[in-house]
Design a protein that fits this description.
Layout: H1 9-18, E1 20-26, H2 30-41, E2 46-50, E3 65-66, H3 70-74, H4 78-94, E4 100-109, H5 116-129, E5 139-141, H6 143-149, E6 158-168, H7 171-184, E7 188-191, E8 193-201, E9 204-212, E10 218-228, H8 234-240, E11 249-260, E12 269-273, E13 279-285, E14 288-292, E15 296-297, H9 309-322, E16 335-344, E17 359-362, E18 368-371, H10 378-395, H11 417-428, H12 437-445, H13 449-458, H14 463-478, H15 484-491, H16 494-497, H17 500-517, H18 521-539
Helix pairs in contact: 2-7, 2-10, 4-5, 11-12, 11-13, 12-13, 13-14, 14-17, 17-18
Bound molecules: flavin-adenine dinucleotide.
Length: about 550
């Protein structure tokens, strides 16, 4: 049985109810996914439940960098810089199609956060701590060189600059790829299953009660250990366990805006000073450039953070300050996203100053909760919590393997990404598609890109639609999609990076999904309405 086929859900739910698991994970973001792969690959019988789509929480709304965390150096978090620096090299090795080395340009500006000497010194320490390869280490640049590389930068403000190494990714795709890999080790991840309560044997937690979000059915999952990896919702689960004491999660909102590449045609990813002492990224990606982020306290509804007009004003002011000739205004914004950081509260600290370190809380009932952390450090976070579970399992005399995720490829490893892109390009040749299409397919689906392109060219009619249908069928067969939004957001990123393709594909994709999943007319209409609402939210700012 293909665990990730959208058609197998009923069978998987049956297994979820009937089997007894060693470990149950609540939350299918990057944290939960990492834990599922680590545990399952050690031989631990693992289930994971996610109340929405996989990666539909914070793990599809980040800046999408696998980074060494330069800013944490300034906060004195040397351990964090060292750990995430090493981790990004491991993720790059294990998922080369998903992790793209990116030279980051840091312009040094008048009155800015970074001075030339401190930056040269800081980046040297950063390169050493993050074990950056010699050829990829930082280089300092003159003002002329910086402006030659990025002619649109503010010439009055720019004094000099430097380039250093970062990596770009797709957070949601990384999460999905980790979960798919976990199923190779017999993990059982299911989306649209919400934990409504914990289950107890005496005073010890022994699994969870759930509601199937798609059908309303309820049930119980039995597990010896339960890990709460619910990201921004971690404290809600701790509350159900009556163990919400001591440290708490602090929510801050981060917004990114998207403009067409022509409006902000930067040649590199940039990390630059906003006007208020904060730092902001601008990242070119295919047809668009996105920039952000904000960092403001958040006490709204966790399920639906949105981009406000204040967020837009702030980011436009910052981007126009650094790229004055681009004159970007509200009407240029093609999309946006807002994510919630699940940070560990630190009294008296402003949002940007709060540490991004992760912490584990263990309650009297045995519930293990994990919060804080970064996308980049997901593997180490997973190792720490599964190590804890394993110590307890060992005490009961059961055996398991040591952690081996350092050497597990995510998906089928693409040996040479550039060659694969060339091959896919050849398949799609003369089909009037955007120049970035082959790269998009390979970076999104890895080795499967070839088969998706091959079946796309067998479709008749408009090639863009043929490709969309081919991708959709792949996701139905292998990527557990149950709603149109799963396809347009978490699997393909179209809502953010190719929003105009949604209107072209909406009707045909809805029909195709309806045929596969037996949707009636009212379900079809509801699905399409939801997409139109999401498009509106990403483009209308109240
Ligand atoms: P989530 O992704 O939110 O996953 C938790 C999941 O639990 C959710 O999907 C939710 O639906 C599910 N859940 C909640 N309650 C229940 C329940 N009762 N039953 C079942 N499921 C439930 N990190 C980096 O390394 N690089 C970056 O560039 C970066 N940029 C960022 C920019 C922004 C704006 C933000 C907000 C964060 C950024 N981060 C970055 C941090 C990173 O994105 C987060 O640390 C990470 O995504 C958190 O993942 P998570 O799995 O803990 O949470």
């Amino acid at each position: 049985m293909v665990t990730f086929s959208s058609k197998n859900r009923a069978q998987l739910l049956d297994n979820l109810q009937k089997d007894s698991f060693e470990l149950l994970i609540i939350g299918g973001g990057i944290t939960g996914a990492g834990i599922a792969l680590d545990a399952a690959s050690r031989g631990i019988k693992t289930a994971l439940v996610e109340k929405g789509d996989f990666a539909s929480g914070t793990s599809s709304k980040s800046t999408k960098l696998i980074h060494g965390g330069l800013r944490y150096l300034g906060q004195g978090d040397f351990g964090l810089v060292q750990e995430v620096g090493k981790e990004r090299a491991i993720v790059f090795e294990n998922a080369p199609h998903l992790v793209v080395p990116e030279k980051m340009l840091l312009p040094l500006v008048k009155g800015g956060t970074y001075g030339r000497l401190s930056t040269a010194l800081g980046l040297t320490v950063y390169d050493l701590l993050a074990a950056v390869k010699k050829e990829e280490r930082r280089s300092m640049l003159s003002k002329n060189k910086v402006l030659e590389l990025e002619p649109l930068l503010n010439k009055e403000l720019t004094k000099s600059g430097c380039v250093y190494s970062e990596y770009r990714t797709d957070d949601a795709r990384l999460t999905i790829e980790i979960l798919k890999t976990a199923t190779n080790y017999e993990a059982l991840p299911i989306n649209y299953i919400e934990v409504t309560d914990l289950a107890y044997n005496g005073d010890k937690v022994c699994g969870a009660k759930y509601r199937d979000v798609l059908t309303g059915d309820i049930g119980i999952i039995s597990a010896n250990y339960t890990v709460n990896a619910a990201g921004p919702w971690v404290d809600k689960i701790r509350n159900k366990d009556n163990s919400l004491y001591g440290k708490r999660v602090h929510h801050t909102k981060g917004v990114h805006l998207v403009v067409p590449k022509e409006k902000l045609p930067v040649n590199h990813a940039l990390y630059f000073d906003a006007f208020d002492g904060r730092m902001i990224f601008a990242i070119p990606r295919g047809k668009i450039t996105y920039f952000g982020t904000t960092d403001t306290n958040f006490d709204g509804t966790l399920e639906s953070p949105t981009t406000s007009k204040e967020d837009v004003s702030y980011l436009l002011k910052a981007i126009n300050n650094m790229f004055p000739s681009c004159k970007i205004n509200k009407n240029d914004i093609s999309s946006s996203w807002a994510g919630i950081r699940p940070l560990i509260h630190q009294e008296g600290k402003a949002p940007s100053e709060i540490s991004r370190k992760d912490e584990i809380f263990e309650s009297q009932s045995g519930l293990l909760s994990i919060a804080g952390g970064k996308l980049t450090g997901y593997r180490k976070m997973a190792k720490r919590i599964v190590d804890k579970v394993c110590i307890s399992i060992s005490k009961k005399g059961k055996e398991h393997h040591a952690c081996k995720t350092e050497n597990i490829s995510l998906g089928s490893k693409v040996e040479n990404v550039e060659i694969l892109i060339d091959q896919v390009n050849t398949i799609l040749e003369n089909n009037n598609l955007h120049i970035c299409t082959a790269e998009y397919l390979v970076r999104t689906y890895g080795i499967d890109a070839k088969q998706i392109a091959e079946s796309a060219i067998r479709e008749t009619g408009d090639m863009k639609i043929g490709l969309g249908i081919s991708e959709l069928r792949h996701c139905l067969n292998k990527e557990s999609i149950h709603k149109l939004s799963d396809f347009f957001i978490q699997r393909t990123g179209r809502l953010y990076f190719d929003i105009e393709s949604i209107s072209e594909l909406l009707d045909v994709c809805c029909e195709e999904m309806a045929n596969h999943l037996n949707w009636n007319n009212s379900r079809k209409e509801a699905e399409k309405d939801e997409i139109l609402k999401l498009v509106e939210e990403a483009t209308l700012f109240l």
